[in-house]
Amino acid sequence: MTAIGNLEFIFLLLLLFIAVFGFLARRIGTPYPIVMVVGGFLISLVPGIPEIALNPDVIFLVVLPPLLYAAAWTTSWRDFRYNLVSIFLLAFGLVGFTVAVVAAIAPRIFDGFDWRLGFVLGAVVAPTDAIAATSIARRVGLPRRLVDILEGESLINDATGLLALQFGTAMVIERRVPSVVDALLTLVWLTAGGIALGLLVGWVVDRVERQIDDAPIEITLSILVPYAAYLAAEEVHASGVLAVVACGLFLARRSVRFFSPSVRIQIWSVWQALNFVLNGFVFVLIGLQLPGIRTSISGYRASALLIDAAAFTLILIGVRLVWVYPGATLAWVLRTHAMHQHERRPSLRNVFVLGWTGMRGVVSLAAALALPASIPGGSAFPQRNVVIFMTFSVIFATLVLQGATLPSLIRALGLAGTAGPNCEEVEARRIVLEKAVAYLRDASATDAGWADVYSDLIHHYEQRLATTGPGQDGGRDAIKHNRYVELSLEALRVERDTAIALRDEGRISDEVLRRMERELDLAETRLDPAADA
What we know:
Layout: H1 3-28, H2 32-44, H3 56-73, H4 77-82, H5 84-109, H6 115-125, H7 131-140, H8 144-174, H9 180-209, H10 215-235, H11 240-258, H12 261-288, H13 290-295, H14 302-338, H15 348-356, H16 362-369, H17 384-412, H18 423-445, H19 451-466, H20 476-504, H21 510-527, H22 529-532
């Protein structure tokens, strides 16, 4: 088989694994990152499975930008800004604390490590991956503010961890410690330069998008944007991560003005699929790495490696738990006194759950694999394979241990909620419907020739308004509205079956059927939003 043929086979194999493990995760009710990591690990043990190496350049340059962009796009800027103090204390404070602790303890745990190598290892494992944590948190009803903080932390701490890794690698290679001034200047440029370039790219895209209303072109442009922001920032040695995040947050708010409804529906579907495939790709690849990583380490007993990895993982879990309690208190003090936010003191249960969600992901493994194989002079980068193995072990253990136990922990602490009414959404729906009814009534007064049309529309909106708001769920209007929805869905089903029968009889073409199906799908989604999920 040619090299291209091998690449195609591996790509198809990965897509198959992603589909199978995704289906299995849905059937057993487990977050797909956990199932995919474990599944990839088990598959890697099967004889004859080709070794699939994780290339760090693929992760940083191909996979990471769209994943960051998608996460930023679905993040609420209002909530992100409101929780900024809590997010920064985790994304900057906790990362720095983790690096410092690992730098201090690594020489006492691992043979051949000094504090510089400990610094490198700490920088590699400091960033967390919130995909598994937030997917669990949403399903079991964890308070929304905790989910917002977790998402915000994961958006930023990749940049701080990679900055620390840059310093650590330089200390190992050049055998010198950068001055405080150099470190601060680098941090300022990485942060300010990355954010500025991300906003610039977003501003340009905003102007371009307002001239276009073509779904294929806009979808293609949306895929191009995160790569443009990331590469532009990296080219000037700023933070590509922060550039993508800033660009995504900016364009998410502006998109309500430049996306038409049909484009918005199509682009959302494309990005849902792309996000799932890319996440599945990296989590399956994580599981597939162990055999290759283990065979690359010589001179170590397997039992000793496993003991060291277990101890190191427990230390990292403990470091996060130690930080979050005083960190949460400090954040509360700053938010209530300096920023005048009306926040209740965080409960110990909430803080513990926040501490238990420190799962590591693909950025850590890619950072470890990106360490140079050799240093100037030709000698190998010291303990590189041990760093990679420990990173893999931490990722695997935190995803499986913490991820699998998080739902039970949330329920045991009494933090699991039910998907009750969202008061903010209910109020917004009420106001929107009232405005629509008021407009129709005013318009009907000056357009008497269409009084029957206005009457039907006003009646439809009043029906929806009657079932919107607290305390209405059990009323007669709610029952009537539910029956209306049921009958409407049945009528749509009859329309769909009839259209399909006409196609099967040859009376309409497949193109006509597709147009009719699209209209029916949109109508059904409006009546039953759960069907789209």
